[in-house]
Specification:
Largest interface: A-B, 48 and 48 residues
Structural class of chain A: alpha/beta
Helix content of chain A: 25-40%
Strand content of chain A: 15-25%
Radius of gyration of chain A: 20 Å
Largest sheet of chain A: 7 strands, parallel
Oligomer: homotetramer
Distance between the termini of chain A: 41 Å
CATH class of the largest domain in chain A: Alpha Beta
Number of helices of chain A: 13
Order of helices and strands of chain A: EHEHEHEHEHHEHEHEHEHEEHEHEEH
Shape of chain A: globular
C-alpha cells in the first residue's frame, strides 16, 4: 500500500493543467505517495493515456469521485476543479479528517459575500470558509502550518501581492495609487478548448481582458487591505501574452517618502523576504524575465524608482502554473506537514 | 526616367526593417516612384538579394550615400538611420530643395536640449530642428502639410499619444496620474543581431526594460505638455512581447470628473478622431488586439472606466512598423504632397 | 444594388478562416461586389461583430442559407464549409446558373469512390462531380476558365503538387520514390476550438500527424497520376508547426538521370512556370522561407540536387490560407471571369 | 575542496547554451562537484551575472583557461566550445589524467579525413582521435564506460540515429532509401547573435537549410555504416522550427520485408532499447511531440508503417540541448564513472 512513512495523497481533478502539474511534482516528492487521481469526464482512463510523456512514471487510473473512498485512502487531498465545486466536496473530506488544499477560488475569501458578488454563486458554508487559510506562505506561513483547509491563491494575486506586500506592510506607498498591469501566458486559461486561446488566434497578438472587472481584483484587495490595515482598492488589468507559461506583474505606486532610492527599497524587500526561500530579489538594475521562473516555484522581483515622478515600479515574475498554482499548493503542503518549504519543488529553470 | 507625374523618392538606410517597409509600401504607392535606395554596409548589393521575397517587384541596387546625387534624383527623401545620422544629412538635402522625412529621433524635439540630455549627443542645428514638424498627423495634420522636414514619431509615443490626446486636450484627467504600460513585439529592436532579441532568448519570455529612463519618455511628455498647456511628466514603461509586430499601450489616469462613464468617453474619442481615418474607436466593451492592426496603418483604441477607482483605462494597438514607423511616414508624405491621407496604405489586416 | 459592372458574389460559410480571408480579399477586389454572406450558427450577426478589425469596411450581416435567394442575388458563390456540405448545395446553385467555387474536398475528386473511401461519406452526384475542375491554375488553367464548378485544392496538395509537377510532367524522377514531408501552421486546422490547437499545447512543440493516412494523400496522387500518365503512390506526412500561417513542403525523389545538376533543374522549373505569375522559382542556393509568402498568393520554390545520392530535393512555401485556400479560389475566379489571374490578390508579403 | 567522495568537474566554455545546461545539471548532480568554469571572453565575470536566474545556486567566477590548473583541480572536464578548439586542449588534459567529454564535432569521427573534408580544418591528432568513443550510449554503452575521451554526438545525429539504429542493425530496410527530414528549434544555433535567429526573423517562419551538405550528414553516415556493416549514404535535411528547444526527426525507409506491420516493428524497437532507460517507444498509433521531451534527457520514438508504399516512417523527438547535447554528455559521464545512467538527469517534462 505504499512507502512506509510517506503521506498518501490524492488529486481530484487530475486531468487539467493544475492536475498534471501536481501529478508530475508529487510523484517525485520525497514526502508523499500519490495514491489517487479522480475525475468525472476522464474516469476510467489511464493517466498516461492523457499525458503520454508521463506514462513511464505514472501508472494510475483516473477514478470516479467517491469522497468516502478518497478519505479512506488519502491523508491529504488536492482539489483542482472549476470554481464552485470544491465547496461541495471539501466539507465532507475535512470531516473525515483529510487535509484539503483547494486550487480554485472557493476558499480564498474570508468574507463569502465578496465571493458571491464577484463569482455569481451563492454559498452557505461561511463557517467552514472561515477556517480556511489563504495559501500565500510568504505572508501567512504560520497559519498555513496549522491549517486543515487551505485556499490556494490565484496566479495573478500571487505575483501581484508578492510585489506589493513589503510596500503596504511598511506603509511606504499611497495605497490608492497602486496600478497593477499584469500579463500572463495562455496556459492560465486552462486546458479548455476556447477559440480565443487557439494558437492561430493568440499567437502574435496581445490584448487586455477583464479590464476593471477581473475576479482576481477582490482577492488582491482582500490581502492588501489586510496588510494596510484599512480598505484598499487597486487597479488591476490582466493581459494575454502569446506564450505558454509565465506572469509578469508590473506594479506602480506613489511613494509616501520621495527621498527613498532604489537601494533603500531593495534593502527593504530583501529584509521582508529574508525567510522566504522562493522569493528572489534581483540586484539593482536587473528586471525579472518570466523565463527565469519557468518550471520553478520561484518569484523573481525587481525594483525601480523614478525620481522624476516619485513612483516605485515593482516587477514580479512567476510561472503561473507553479508558484501561481500547483507549486505553491505543494509549498503549502510542505508547511502543513512540517516539512521544509522547498521539499520536492524545482529551483532551477532551464534556459533558454 | 519614370512614370509621368509620379514623385521621385529615395530612401537612405533601406536595408533595415524601417527601410524594407518603406520599399514595400512605396513600390505600390500610386503617387510616387521609388528611384533610389541608399546604404553604407550594403551598398552595391541588389535589394532583392537582401529580401528575396521582394525580388520579383524591386530591381533597385543599394547605392552609396551621395547627397548631391540623391537630391538631384529625388524630390522626397526618407531617412531610416540610427539616431544621430539624419541630422548630418538632412540640412544638405533640405537646402537642395528636397522634402525630408526622418524616421529617427533626430528631429522629434523642438528643444534640442531634451534630445541632448536623453540621447547623449550634442547638436548644433537648433535652427533647422525648429523647422521640423512632429509627424503625428492626428495632432499636427495642418503643420505637416506645410512642412519641408518631418520628424516621424517613435513607435511607443505614437500608440501612447493617440490613447492620451483626447483626455489631455479636453482636460479630462489629472495629468500627473498618467501611467503608460506599453508592450512591443521584438521587431521594434530592429534588424540588428542582439543576443536578447534572439528567438531562443526572447520567445516564451516577457520582461520590462528601460524602466523610468526609456528615451521615448521625453517625446511623449513633449506632446502631452503641448496638449495640456503646461509641463506634464508621465510614467512610461516598455516591455518586450515574444512576437514580431505590434504595440499595445495600456494607459491609466484618474478622471477629474468621476461622473463620466464609458459611453461618454467613447463619444469624446470618436469626436476627437472624427477626421482621422487611421484611428478606429472600438465599440463599448471591445478591447484592441494588436493582431487587428498588423500590416496596416491603423490604430485601434478601446476605452474602459473603473467606477470603483475613478480611473480611465485606454488601450491602443498599432503595428509598430506601420503606424509606429514606415506607415506613418507615408501618411505624412501624403499630407505633404496634398494627397489623401490614406493613399497607398493598407487598411485591412489579414486574420488570423 | 451595387457598382455597375461588378460581379455580385456571395460566400456560404463566411465565419471561419476561409470565409474571413475571402471577405477581406473580395471587398478590395476590383471586379466583384460582395453582396451576400451566409452561415448557420452565426446567422443574424454582423460580420464586423465576429471580426471587429474588418468592421470599418464590411457592413454585411450574416444571413441564413437560402439557396434560391442566394442564386437570385449572386452570380458567383464561394462555398467555405466542412466536407460533405458543398455537395448538398452546389447542384441547386449550378442549376440556377451560378458559378460555384468549393473550398472543401467535395469536388476535388474525379472518381467519387476515392472520396468515399478516404472521407467515409457516400455520394450520389457523380455526374455533377465529373463536371468539376480541380482548381490548381498552374496545371489546369484552361479548364478552369471554362468551368462552372471548381473544386479548390487542399493546402498541402497545392504546395506539394507545385513542387512535384515539373518533375512528373517531364518524367525526370522515379515516381514511387517521392517522399513529401510537409509542415503547416496551425491555422490549417480552422477556427474550431480543438484542445491540440490551443496555444498552450501547440506552441513550442512539433509533431507529425495523420502519418500514412492523411486525406490529402489521394488528392496528391490523383494529380501525380494524371501528370505521370500512370498510377503513382506518394509518401505524404503532415506536421504541425508552432506558428499561425504557412506551409513548407520538402519533397524528395530519385532522379532518373543522375547527370542533372541544380542549374538544369532550375531552368526546367522556370520554363514550366513561365506563364504562372504566382509561382516564383528562387535563385540557385536560395531556399524558401514560409514568411516570404505570408499574406500573398505566391508559391516560392527552391531546388537542390544531392550528387551523392542522386536525389532532388524541392522545397515549396505557400501561405496555407492564401495560395493554399482563399487566394487560390480567387485566382480561379479571375480565370473563370476572363480577368487577369493576379487581379485583386496581394503580391508582397510584409517582412518581418 | 569540496564534498568528500564527489568527483571534481570543470567546464571549459561555460557561457554558451551548452555550458549553461551543463552548469544547471551538474550543480544538482549527486555524484559530482562543479569546481571550475572557464571561458575566454567572459573570464572574470560571475556566472550568476550572465545567468541571473542561477545566481542563487551558483557562485563560481568564470576563469581564464589554464590547462595545467584545470587538470590539477578537475578529474573530469567538459569542453563546450566551437569546433576546432577541443582538439587543441583535449590532448594536454588527457595526458594529465583527466577524463574529457567534448561537445563539439572534434572527436566524433574515427576517420579524421571525413572531419577535414566536411569541417574544412586540418588535423594532426589521428592517434588521439582514434581513442575517442562516440558518445551515444544506446549504441556504444560499453565502450563509453571504458573511455577516457568521449566525442559527444551532434543533436540531429542523436535523434536520427536512435530512430534508424534498430532498422539498420537488424537489416530491415534498404539503407540507401533512408530519408531523414529533421526539424530543430532555434537554440540549436547557439547563443550567438545571428540575424537569421532573431525572433523577428525566425518566428512564424519555417525553412530548410544546409540541404544536401549539412555537417551532421557524415556523422550520421559513419554510425549507419557501422551498424549496416557497409557504407551507407543518407539523405539528411535540417529545418528551423520557430520555437526554442526540440528536434523532431522524421525518417523514411523502404522495408525489405513488406509483410512487417506496425506491431512487429514496435516489438523490435522495444527489444532493441530494452536496456536503454532514456529511450521510450510510444504505444501503437501515438507519435512523439517534442514538448514531451523538453527539459529531459528522453528520446520518444513513434513508428508507423505504410502498407501502400512498404515504407516505415519513424519519428523521434528529443530536447536538442539535453539528449541532443548536455544531457547526453552527463549520461556518458555517468557511464564513465560507473554510475547509473540516469543519475542526476531529469525524467519528467513539465507540460504544457
Amino acid at each position: 500500500m505504499g512507502d512506509v512513512g510517506r503521506v498518501p495523497v490524492g488529486i481530484i481533478g487530475a486531468s487539467g493543467y493544475g492536475g498534471v502539474q501536481l501529478v508530475r511534482l508529487l510523484i517525485d516528492h520525497p514526502g508523499v505517495e500519490l495514491v489517487y487521481l479522480g475525475g468525472e469526464s476522464s474516469a476510467g482512463k489511464a493517466f498516461g493515456e492523457l499525458y503520454p510523456h508521463l506514462n513511464h512514471r505514472v501508472d494510475l487510473i483516473i477514478e470516479p469521485i467517491d469522497l468516502d473512498q478518497i478519505a479512506a485512502r488519502c491523508q491529504v487531498v488536492f482539489l483542482s476543479l472549476p470554481n464552485g465545486l470544491a465547496c461541495q466536496m471539501a466539507p465532507a473530506l475535512l470531516e473525515k479528517g483529510c487535509k484539503v488544499l483547494d486550487l480554485s477560488a472557493d476558499y480564498r475569501f474570508s468574507n463569502l459575500e465578496t465571493y458571491e458578488n464577484w463569482y455569481g454563486k451563492t454559498r452557505s458554508d461561511q463557517a467552514i470558509a472561515e477556517t480556511a487559510v489563504y495559501g500565500l506562505p510568504e505572508l501567512y506561513r504560520d497559519r498555513i502550518a496549522e491549517a486543515q483547509l487551505v485556499g490556494c491563491p490565484g496566479c495573478y494575486p500571487t505575483a501581484s501581492l508578492l510585489a506589493l506586500s513589503p510596500l503596504l506592510k511598511q506603509g511606504l506607498i499611497v495605497p490608492e495609487t497602486a496600478v497593477i498591469d499584469a500579463k500572463s501566458g495562455t496556459s492560465g486559461g486552462g486546458r479548455q478548448a476556447k477559440t480565443n486561446l487557439l494558437l492561430a488566434e493568440a499567437d502574435n497578438s496581445f490584448a487586455a481582458y477583464g479590464v476593471a472587472r477581473h475576479r482576481h481584483t477582490p482577492e488582491i484587495e482582500q490581502v492588501c487591505s489586510d496588510l494596510a490595515g484599512h480598505e484598499v482598492l487597486v487597479q488591476f488589468t490582466p493581459h494575454l501574452i502569446p506564450m505558454v507559461r509565465g506572469i509578469l506583474s508590473t506594479v506602480y505606486a506613489t511613494l509616501r517618502d520621495p527621498g527613498l532610492v532604489r537601494e533603500d527599497l531593495l534593502t527593504i524587500y530583501m529584509a521582508f523576504y529574508r525567510s522566504s526561500p522562493w522569493v528572489k530579489i534581483l540586484p539593482s538594475g536587473v528586471y525579472p524575465q518570466t523565463k527565469w521562473a519557468t518550471g520553478t516555484n520561484l518569484c523573481y522581483i525587481g525594483v525601480e524608482v523614478d525620481p522624476r515622478t516619485d513612483r516605485i515600479i515593482v516587477m514580479s515574475a512567476i510561472d503561473n502554473l507553479m508558484k501561481g498554482q500547483a507549486g505553491q499548493a505543494i509549498q503549502c503542503l510542505n508547511l502543513m506537514m512540517g516539512w521544509n518549504e522547498t521539499l520536492g519543488l524545482p529551483q532551477l529553470s532551464f534556459y533558454p
